[in-house]
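A student in our group prepared the protein record below, which I am reviewing. This is what I was given:
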Amino acid sequence: MKLRIKGDSIRMRLTQTEVNTFGESGVIEDRVRFSPEQSLVYRLEREEQGALRAEFHGNTLTVFVPDVIAGQWVGTQQVGFRGEVPIDSYDGDVLRILVEKDFHCLIPRPDEDESDHYANPLAKSE
């Protein structure tokens, strides 16, 4: 699973295996290790009800996905889903969340294994 953070936005991209694991178990996570004692854990977790939201506790960032959104995304060709979560009701700031299936790049990257990525719909078939 890839994680991209920029300002008040979070983007997660999952391979086919990760989407399948998330669909079966309701959770998928990965981590960035900074040292043997320090890491940032990021996870996608399914929950029965509620709205798309994110929490950060300790060293763990969790994006919670309602069942209805998760089921539709995992079980269809839908590429992704997004939402905005209020940060501060006073000034209207929001956290933008985007979760997507990870596609093959149109320009090959020799340093990245894309064997488990989804076929890119923009790729020209030969």
Observations:
- The beta strands are 2-6, 9-14, 27-33, 39-47, 53-57, 60-66, 80-88, 93-101.
- The mean pLDDT is 89.
- Residues 88 and 94 are 7 Å apart (CA to CA).
- The radius of gyration is 16 Å.
